[in-house]
Specification:
Helices cover 46% and strands 15% of the residues. By secondary structure, it is of the alpha/beta class. It has 2 domains: 162 residues, 3-Layer(aba) Sandwich (Rossmann fold), CATH 3.40.50.1400; 121 residues, 3-Layer(aba) Sandwich (Rossmann fold). The chain has a 4-stranded parallel β-sheet with strand order 2-1-3-4, with helices on both faces. Strand 5, helix 7 and strand 6 form a beta-alpha-beta unit. The longest helix is centred in the N-terminal third of the chain and has 22 residues. The radius of gyration is 21 Å and the shape is elongated.
Length: 293
C-alpha cells in the first residue's frame, strides 16, 4: 500500500471515529447551503514559491469574491518543514474536516498540479472518500489540473508564448522543464511540445522524472545546432526542483549540463503560477467544478 493511501485511510478512520462525538457536541450544527473553495498544491518550503501562491490566491479571490477560499498541501515533507518554521499547513483531509465543521455543504477542490497524474488522482480519491462518509460536506467537486483537455492545451500554448522573454531571438531555443511522472498522464508534456512546435520549432519541453528527459532535449538541441537556450520552469512554483535540478551548481543540473555542452544558458526563475495567463486556466477549471453544484 502506497504512503498516500495509508495516510488517507488513517485520516478517514480518525474522522469516522471522531464524527459521532463531534455531532453530539452542543456547538455543532448541520451544514447549511454554504459553498467554499479549497486550493490544493504539492507545496514548497522555498520563499520564492510564495510569489506563485500569492498570485493564485489573489486571482481566485478576485474571480470569486463571495466564496471563501482555503488552502491545502499534499506534501507531508513540506508540511513538516513549514511546521518547524512556525507555519502550520493543512493536508487536504485536514482542510476538508475543518470546512465540514464550519458548516460548508459544497466544496470545489481545485488541483493546482500540472498534469492529471498520481498527485491529482490521490486528491480525487481523498475527496470522494470524504464525500462518501456522509458527514458534513455533502457535495465535493474536484477541478482538473492545468493540462486537462484540448482547450486547456490550446490555452497553455498561448500562455507559454506569452511568457517567453522578449529578448529571446528566434534562433535561440526555449527549454521548459516539468517535473515528470511515471503516470500515463506524463504524455501530456510531449503532446504539448508537439503542439508548441507547430508555432515555434525551437520550443522544447523536458522533464526531471519522465520523458522527454534532459538527454533527449540535449540531443534535439544539438541536432538543431542551438547555441543558446532560455531555460524556464514548467512547474507551478520555482521551488526545490527549479533551484537545484534546473539551476543548481552541481554538474548534473540542466544549466550545468547545457553549459558543459557549449550551449549558453539564460535562466528565468519563475514558476508558471506567477503568470496570470496560466492561472486563468486553473480558474476556468475551477469555474467548471463550481458549475457542477
Amino acid at each position: 500500500m502506497t504512503h498516500p493511501m495509508r495516510v488517507l485511510l488513517i485520516s478517514l478512520l480518525i474522522f469516522a471515529l471522531w464524527a459521532p462525538f463531534s455531532s453530539a457536541c452542543p456547538h455543532h450544527e448541520e451544514p447549511t447551503d454554504k459553498t467554499g473553495i479549497l486550493l490544493v498544491t504539492f507545496g514548497s518550503s522555498y520563499p520564492q514559491a510564495r510569489k506563485a501562491f500569492d498570485n493564485i490566491d489573489k486571482s481566485v479571490r478576485a474571480a470569486f469574491p463571495d466564496t471563501e477560499v482555503r488552502w491545502a498541501y499534499t506534501s507531508r515533507m513540506v508540511r513538516s518543514i513549514m511546521q518547524e518554521k512556525g507555519e502550520a499547513l493543512d493536508s487536504p483531509e485536514q482542510a476538508l474536516a475543518k470546512m465540514a465543521d464550519e458548516g460548508f455543504s459544497h466544496v470545489a477542490v481545485q488541483s493546482l498540479h500540472m498534469i492529471p497524474g498520481h498527485e491529482y488522482h490521490y486528491l480525487v480519491s481523498a475527496a470522494r472518500a470524504y464525500e462518501s462518509i456522509g458527514k458534513g460536506i455533502s457535495h465535493i467537486r474536484v477541478g482538473m489540473p492545468l493540462l486537462a483537455g484540448q482547450a486547456a492545451l490550446d490555452q497553455t500554448v498561448e500562455a507559454v508564448n506569452a511568457s517567453i522573454p522578449d529578448e529571446r531571438k528566434t534562433d535561440e531555443a526555449v527549454v521548459l522543464v516539468g517535473h515528470g511522472s511515471g503516470h500515463p498522464a506524463n504524455a501530456s508534456y510531449a503532446a504539448l511540445m508537439w503542439q508548441l512546435q507547430l508555432t515555434d520549432e525551437n520550443i522544447f519541453i523536458g522533464t526531471i522524472s519522465g520523458f522527454p528527459d534532459m538527454d533527449d532535449i540535449l540531443a534535439r538541441l544539438r541536432e538543431n545546432a542551438i547555441q543558446k537556450v532560455w531555460l524556464m520552469p514548467f512547474m507551478s512554483v520555482a521551488g526545490d526542483h527549479v533551484q537545484n535540478d534546473m539551476f543548481g551548481e552541481d554538474a548534473d543540473s540542466w544549466q550545468s549540463v547545457f553549459t558543459e555542452a557549449g550551449i549558453a544558458v539564460e535562466t528565468v526563475n519563475k514558476g508558471v503560477a506567477e503568470y496570470d495567463a496560466y492561472v486563468e486556466i486553473w480558474i476556468q477549471h475551477l469555474e467548471d467544478a463550481l458549475s457542477g453544484f
